[in-house]
Amino acid sequence: MTVLKHTLGLFLHPDEEWRKIRNERHSFIQVFMSHMPILALIPVLAAYYGVTQVGWSVTGGDVVKLTPESALVLCGFTYLAQLVAVYVLGEYINWMAHSFGVKEEGAQRHYEGTALSVYAATPLMLAGVIMLYPEPWVVVSVYFAAIAYAVYLLYEGTPILMNIPKGQAFIYSSSIVTIGLVLSVVVMISTVIAWGMGFGPVYID
User: Fold this and answer.
1) Confidence at residue 107, expressed as pLDDT on a 0 to 100 scale
2) Domain-embedded: residue 7
């Protein structure tokens, strides 16, 4: 499958895989539309099943579950938020490319920044499988590991994919991580606003 074309390689030999990605010609459809709509479904579908069928408990108390209707709405918001966040991050990377000396070959716009955003986010999407068993401490542990590897991929991939010196790439990568954190805060604030508008979780009694 196209969506899994580079996924395994990014875990086994990331530097080599980033070079393969660099040698491809990127269009928005090839990079974003063929990957993110499918990858973003992984945590959403897992979460829907986990919070409606399995549930979770706090400090060994009663198992908590959401109603299917409530979970569907929240998962829908989460799916859209993931797509928007990765898209915006990719656009930021593309926009900042000239400031860091990234040169495009030819007149056609390329989407190396979008590719960097999508592939760096892949560990976070795959980690969403853990939502099948949504115990808070398990989910937090897995996502911390996924975030760490996503940041590693970002720092490793930036000098290769953007074809710039490592010194520049380090600053570039750091600015990308900063924007990623800002986007995370925006998503959390949007979630709080949505809850305040009546789209919060509804628990099964």
Assistant:
1) 39
2) no
Widest CA span of the chain, in angstroms? Answer: 61
Tokens of 53: 């069928």
Phi, psi for 111 (deg, rounded to 5): -125, 45
Give the pair of three-digit tokens for residue 179. 């924007």
Q: How many domains, in total, are found in the chain?
A: 1
Cα separation, 113 vs 94, whole angstroms: 5
pTM for the predicted model, two decimal places: 0.89
State residue 64's pLDDT score: 87
In a domain, 188, yes or no: yes
Task: Provide the domain limits for residue 152.
Answer: 14-196
